[in-house]
Amino acid sequence: xxxxxxxxNLLTSQYKxxxxxxxxxxxxxxxxxxxxSTNKDDLKEYETPLENIRNFSIIAHVDxxxxxxxxxxxxxxxxxxVNSGMQILDKLQVExxxxxxxxxxxxxxxxxxxxxxxxxxxxxxPGHVDFASEVYxxxxxxxxxxxxxxxxxxxxxxxxxxxxxxxxxxLIIIPVINKIDLKNANPEKVAKQxxxxxxxxxxxxxxxxxxxxxxxxxxxxxIIRRIPPPPSDRDKPLKSLIFDSWFDRYRGCxxxxxVKDGVVSIGDQIASCHTxxxxxxxxxxxxxxxEEFVKKIYAGQVGCITCNMRSSGEAYIGDxxxxxxxxxxxxxxxxxxxxxxxxxxxxxxxxxxxxxxSAIEKLTLNDNAVSVTKESSPALGQGxxxxxxxxxxxxxxxxxxxxxxxxxxxxxAPGVTYRAKITGKxxxxxxxxxxxxxxxxxxxxxVQIIQELFEPMVIGTIIxxxxxLGAIMSICMERRGVEQSTINIDNERIMIKFKLPLNEIxxxxxxxxxxxxxxxxxxxxxxxxxxxxxxxxxDVLLNGQQVEELSTLVHYTKAxxxxxxxxxxxxxxxxxxxxxxxxxxxxxxxxxxxxxxKPYRKDVAAKLYGGDIxxxxxxxxxxxxxxxxxxxxxxxxxxxxTFIDVLKR
Length: 649
Fold this sequence. Notes:
The chain has 17 helices and 31 strands. The protein is an alpha+beta fold.
C-alpha cells in the first residue's frame, strides 16, 4: 500500500485521476480511500458566476428521444467524442437491454455563447410512468425543462403527466419536437396538439432531429436565453439538497446534491437535517460525464459528495445538508415516492439469505423508491416484502438483482396495500389504531371486526386514436373503471380519464390495452387515494385443510372467476397422492370452486388369473376402504416448488 501511495504522490496532477480510475478495479478500499482524500491542493476549483449556470432536465414520453438528445448535447459541448456510442448516459445493463432509461443521470456541460462560458447541468430522466418519481426529484434541482415530443407519435400520456409535473414546480418549459427527419413526421400537427392541450404557441417550439443533430445548437441557445440562473446566494451558510444517491463498493454512498446556498469544501464537517448525523467531506466531484474531482462546490452547482455514508437510511432523498457549526432551516422537502405495488422476495435457498439481504440493501441505496420490510412464510422461509412504483419497476429491480449482484430470488405475485377500519376497543388496542394497512393476505383481519374496507384508486389517462374508443371503454369498464372525462386532442386522437382500482391494472392491463388498440394507445396513472370497496379473502383448502400461504384478496365481483382459475392451476401443479384430494377455493364457509385430484391406483387384481369375479371385487373393495381411511388421516405435505409455482408471477 505504501509503495502505491508514494508512486501516486510523485505523479503530476493531470495523471492522478486517470491512475485512480485504473486502480479502482484492482486496489483495496483502504488504498482507494487514501487516493481520494490526499493531495487536495492539486485539485481544480471552478467558481462559475451564478448568472452563467443553467440547471435543466429533459422530460418526455418513452422512446421520444430524450437520451439521444442528451448524447447530441454532450457531443456538441465536447463532453464526449462525436459518434462515440449510443445513449452514453444509460449506464445500466438493464437500460441497454430494454432500450429505456431507468435511472436519472446527471452531467455538467461547458458551452460558450457570445464569448461567455456557461455551465449547463443536465439531468436525463426516465419516461415510463413507473419512474415518475425519478422525474419529480430531478425537477427539484432545476429551473427549467426541455419537453421532448415525437413528431410522428405526437403527445402521449406521459407527456401530459410530465408537463403538469414541471408546470406545478413553476419551471420554464422549452417545447421541442423531435424526429422531424422521419418519413411520417408531422410537426405541424404535433404543434397544434401542444397548443390545444398546453396553450403552447408554435413560435416557442423548436423542431429538431436528435439522431441527425439537426438544430441542436438552437436547443443550447434556448437553454441559456430562456432558463434563468439558479436563485442562490454564496454568502449565506451552506444549504444543499440531496436529490439522488448510489452505492460505490469502495467509497460507500455517493450523494448527488444541489447546493442552494453557500459553498462546501473538502474537509468540511457537515450535518443532516433529517438524521442529525455529522460527516467529514472526503471528496467532491462534478460529472462531465466521468467524475472530475474538485476542491469546492459553490451555490447553484450540482455535484457529488462522498462523506462515509454507509446506508440508504443515511442518504435520505430530499434531506438538507449544512455545516455542523451553522444549523439552517431545511429546504422545502419534496414528497417521497409512494410504493404502489408490493411483492414478496425470498431466497431460492435459506442459505442464500444473507447474500440476498446484502444485495437488496445495496440496490435500494441506488433505488430509493423501493420500500423494504421483513416478513416470513412457513412455505418459503425468511424473506422481505418490497414495495415498488409499478410492475416494470419490479421487473427491473429483479433483473438488476441478478445482473449486478448475482442474487437469485423468488418474487411472489404483486399486490396492493388495502386499508381496513376496525371496531371494538380490544381490537383497537391490539392493532394500536382503528385503521390498519395490509398488503399480505395473511394479515387480513377477522371479518367480524371489520367495519369498512378501502382499496387504492388511481386516475388513469389514456391517449389513443378515436376508432379504438369502444374497445378501450370496454376493458376499462370490465376492470371496474369509472369514466372521468373525455377530451379531443385533434380530429383523430382522444384523451380519456378513468378512475380505476389499482389492483385491476398492475398485472396485465397495459398489455391488454396495447392489444385492443393495435399498440397505439399510451397509458399513465397517478394516485387518487383510497375508496370504500368490498374486498374478500379467498382461502384454498386441500383435503379440507386450509393452506394459508395460498390465500388471495379479490373484489367480490371477481371472486368466482378467480376461484375457478386457481382450482385449475392447482390441479396441474399439486402432486398426486395415494388418495383423492379435494381442491376447494372458498370465501368463509361458501365453496366457490372445486376440483378433484385423482389418486394413484395400484392394480390389485393384476395377480388374479381366471376364477370367480367375487374375489376381484373383494380386493377392490378392500382397496377402496383403505384409501378412504387414508384420506381421513392423511396429511398433504406440499413441496416448496409447488408454492413457488403458485405464488410467483
